[in-house]
Amino acid sequence: MRIDPLQFLTDELDSLKQQGLYRPLRVLESEQSAHATFDHKSVVNLSSNNYLGLTTHPRLREAALDAVRIYGAGSGSVRTIAGTMELHMELERRLATFKKVEAVVVFQSGFTANAGTVSAILGKEDVVISDELNHASIIDGCRLSRAAIKVFPHKDVDAARRILHELPAGQRKLLITDGVFSMDGDLGPLPGLCEVAEEFGAIMMVDDAHASGVFGAQGRGTVDHFKCHGRVDIQVGTLSKAVGVLGGYVAGTRDFIEFLHHRARPFLFSTSHPPAVAAACIAALDVLEQEPQWMEQLWDNTRFFKAGLHAMGFNTGLSDSPITPVIVGDAPLAAQMSDKLFQCGVFAQSIGFPTVARGKARLRTIVTATHSRDDLQYALDMFGKVGKELAVIT
User: Is 210 part of the annotated catalytic residue set?
Assistant: First the structure.
């Protein structure tokens, strides 16, 4: 009888189940909207990154359908061979203007934008100075680059300065932070880090995935929010969250972007975006620039929901954004709370190790512009009910 060489994976899954860290996939059976159907159940959806509700906006739907009718379903090639369409170029021109930079390149995902950029511009003689809570895509990009990695405590500008002070003056250095941290919802200390980067001649990079469409004028991100234009060398954004479609992008100088055309492996070896995706992203930029009510409603809803959680005594950490963690601590308890809420018609996914540190398990909630006040009040009522049943609050 043959011994299963993958038995160790089954053992690992059993261990996850014992620790309360195993979570089955919830299957979406409707639009990705504020009130959606998962696993045959209609729920208030607090687990989507669809901040502005643009996944179902009529202008994005029509743009996608028109592009399919004109150009077909796919692009058929990588960008460097035959897969660069005028739609891709238009999207990048629009993004560059939007971000107030010279040029932009679009990647297939925010993950590949981060990982592909860091690994392309750095080598084993270089060093990365990275916030300890930076996104996994940044961490993977750092590892792929083979550069030395120096980690500073979360948002500790002085610690970053000490690390840079100890490094050789001539060594190439990249200082990198999330603009909005995806699990805690707090903002990176961008002005202070820009000052440190300037002091020591480091490349300054920010991952603005969760700030795109949420912070800054018309959703331009934390660089705009903190008035740091011209001080950040590399900006990474997403087209998959507030923009409502798919992909990521990198913004900076023209020479930097053209270098990525030649060295960023996800750009070189992945087929380009389908026409419908590129066209819908362009339409989303039109919405961001012409329909400010969506951002305004997002923040009105965010303030209402946060205030309700605080009033009941939930621990929501230090969130400054629509990402509002409800920190429980114990992973099995967080999973139990998430399941009970789902049974009550509220989808708030639990998050445990390794996505967050052990002992910091939470339910990660995101309010969107398209939640009604009734949706949010119902969700708050159910949080209160389940939180008391499980003694998360008194």
Answer: yes
